[in-house]
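Here we describe the complex-level prediction in full. Unlike the single-chain runs in Section 2.1, the two entities below were treated as one system.
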Amino acid sequence: MIGRSSTVLETAAAVRSGAVSAMDVTQAALSRIAADDPRLGAFTEVTSDRALAQAAKVDAAMAGGGDPGPLAGVPFAVKNLFDVAGLPTLAGSKINADHPPAPSDAVLIRRLTQAGAVLVGALNMGEYAYDFTGENCHYGPSRNPHDPSRMSGGSSGGSGTAAAAGFVPLTLGSDTNGSIRVPSSFCGLFGLKPTFGRLSREGTFPFCYSLDHLGPLARSAADLAAAYDAMLDPAGKDEPVTPGLGRGADGLRIAVAGGYFAKGALPEAFEAVATVAASLGATETVTIPEAARARAAAYVITTAEGGNLHLERLRTRAEDFDPATRDRLLAGAMVPSSWYLQAQRFRRWYHDRVMELFANVDIILAPATPCTAPPIGQETMVLDGVEMLVRPNIGIFTQPLSLIGLPIAAVPVQRPGGLPIGVQVIAAPGREDLVLRVAAQLELSGVCAAPVPN
Amino acid sequence: MPDSTFDAVKHVEHMAAVLGLAVDPVYMPGIVGNMARTAEIARLVTDFPLSDDTEIAPTFHPAQVHPAMPHSGSEGA
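The structure predicted for the assembly as a whole is:
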């Protein structure tokens, strides 16, 4: 029986076996969205007509004896910075609503469609992706399905909400400083930020060229692997990761990140890391050098590139921005070039040092967020006895790692009676296979799971 | 380099003029607050000594018209 809790692979298997039609699966997803999304705010556009037409194509392929693709009939949705043919690419903004409709789909949507998946809509996000909360002053907040008074996390907020609520088993997001990993942590999902540059960004609205990544969010590690494999460049050399998933963590040297990654968070963040580490038998710690400076470098690069990207819009339409985004981007446009260039040179230095660590370790574990999902609108939180701003500090553990483009799976630790929280499973560039193998083992052992809340 | 004498108000006023931005006075406190925070954070980077041969991270590939990276070109689906 395919329903709200079904995974990508369960859905595809049912459609491919003829147990259920893609049309039925798609209509059920559209019904769930129509019934429940008004209170959760995941979608900014539901592409019903297109979805039904695509489902009919999948069913026709089945009826004709053809191969409908590995993701046959799997409903999915994308952060609204992905081009969807016929829609303006909002990137969470009011300003982009005036853009002409995108002439074609983003490359990653085309690849998933080619694999048989069915796009059902575009998802809410923080304005221009400069956000960790999932709040949006134009389109309302995307809410956390585990507690709708709380943040989904951002900036891929709707991507977190839609997958966690069981509207669809697969969503796509973007991650510049943590925008896949943060909603994965707050919404209790598996999320993958691949190696920088691995998945095509063609047909998506940028935020920060130096740091933007795209990737999937789902409710199982194998689903992430299936989506990732389907999105690889078919003409490229990258190997699919699904065939090796069953090897789990066997033979991998796994360590916990100490130092910077072992302070400045609430106890639940470290408890989750300890739970995952214990399950994997990881007892070593490793120190990622100068992580605080790495976070600072990511901050400076992001604000400077973002400010430059949006300068003309800031000049002509400042009043149409979300005030929080506007003020940060305006300040970013005023960053002296020496600060920016020094951050890019530091990035090179830091990359080379972290690569040295991977000579002795295959996987590093770190918290994904310093806290579980805060209430929507909360502006400050207390960490280590110090009151800090929520917005900039949600990403303290994600930013130093995306700075150098490492592949990372966010894995969800459920807390009985409490909200879920994520752990980052980190590997060397190009080793998506390792982070997903570990995620799959954690899921198999029951340490990590992403159940749809009642 | 940013230091404790960094005056965010003066910097923002100067840069607004340099960039030709007519900043609504209502936005000034928010911009100045962000500029001051950015300066504080940037100091962590600018205080860190780097050797002359530490190149900036992004690389440029002449002759590569359709890089595998981003927003670029005609890569097929």
